[in-house]
Amino acid sequence: MATDKRTALFELLLAIASEQVGTSAMKASGGFSSLGLTVIAATGYIFSLIIFARSMHILPMGFAYALWVGLGMAIVTILGVVIYKESFNWKMAIGLGLVIAGLISMNVA
To answer: What is the pLDDT along the chain (109 residues), one digit of tens a residue?
Structure first.
């Protein structure tokens, strides 16, 4: 369990990374048609939830969840564009920028 804020933030970032592994594996699994990628997806999500819960022993729930969801969304959007060649336009860029601005605002507050 996290014992200080720095450790809790590290665990939160680890949870976010684990979720991104799970999400990417889920996309690559083709609707869970690949057993190996399905196992990686499930493991990524399970590990993410466990580590996320550990980080919330120290971090405020609103901050932790906002960072988990917001940063996760930004990362998975970038992965989708880079790895899966998904579309990205200026409206999406504005929305992503607003999410990041919100995360920064919550961190400053």
So the answer is: 667 999 999 999 999 999 999 999 999 999 999 999 999 999 999 999 999 999 999 999 988 998 898 889 999 999 999 999 999 999 999 999 998 888 888 777 6
Q: Which domain holds residue 74?
A: 5-108
> What is the rounded CA–CA span in Å between residue 75 and residue 70?
9
The residues, ordered by sequence, that sit 6+ positions from 83 with a Cβ below 8 Å of its Cβ are 24
- Write out 26-84 in H/E/C secondary structure: HHHCCCCCCHHHHHHHHHHHHHHHHHHHHHCCCCCHHHHHHHHHHHHHHHHHHHHHHHH
Structural domain count, the chain: 1
Q: How far, in Å, CA of 8 to CA of 64, rounded? A: 9
